[in-house]
What we know:
This protein is α/β, with parallel strands linked by helices. 40% of the residues lie in helices and 16% in strands. It is built from ten helices and twelve strands. It is globular and about 65 Å long. The model is unreliable at 66-74 and 197-208 (pLDDT under 50).
Amino acid sequence: MGGKLGVVLSSGGARGSAHVGVLKVLAENGVVPDLIVGVSMGAEVGGMYAAGVPLIEIERLWKTASFGRVFKTLLPTIPWSGWSSGREVVRVLRQLVGDQQIEDLPIPFAAVATDLETGLPHTLSNGDLAPAIRASLSVPGLFTPVWIDDRLLVDGGVSNPIPVDVARMLGAETVVAVDVLVEPSDAPLSGIPAVANRDRLLGIAKGMEAVQSSARRYYPSVFTVLFQMSTIFQRRVSDLILATHPPDVLIRPNFSAAPPCYSDVGCGIEAGEAAARSALPSIRACMERASAP
């Protein structure tokens, strides 16, 4: 089989654990990417794999994650351009990938970040790997932005959450994209009850009649609203990208059994494995067509 195979790993937070499962199944079946493009958590998983970190080690990191370890990466910092400096993230990455340069990796790799000044995606395909990954996953407000290539960079998911176009630009003839973005309808929403019900519950106006409605009404917290806004925005952007630059194979793991979080990977890796196994026939068929004379 031939044809240059590019694997694109999307952003998606803790659901990025599924990327590990997808890469595991591909490796077990002799499907080795000729290049990997990752964004945000996809850049972390893809960058480590491209640097030669064994998948069993990447999987172990996910499965041994704990609240304490996650908390260490989010310690507050000064200046106040982000909650965390991200130094702990870089320290952990250094332990795994050392000082490897992207252009020297065993598998060609690119991380996608967002230029905070222009709002445009910025592809990092050379230079120090660890800071590039750190830039790609720098969620605005959570991590401070990173200066690389005289650009102030934040999370690539802001501008290009599933960069199929970058893989094509780098020469991929067959593109397999892994989409682990949260669907807005899957995000659980809750909050304090709507005014009339809330007042009755608090005993402020015991004589008031509760709002009669077939639907439960509530007011979510500001953090819930902001997270949902980001979820909606990234899904809309990714849908436009997929329509403009469709991959040859699109893998969307099913997380319905136990959606992963950073301190509990849940079924994330297994969901990626199951989705990759289902996609294998399509991947092989596309690679065969790409290599045909």
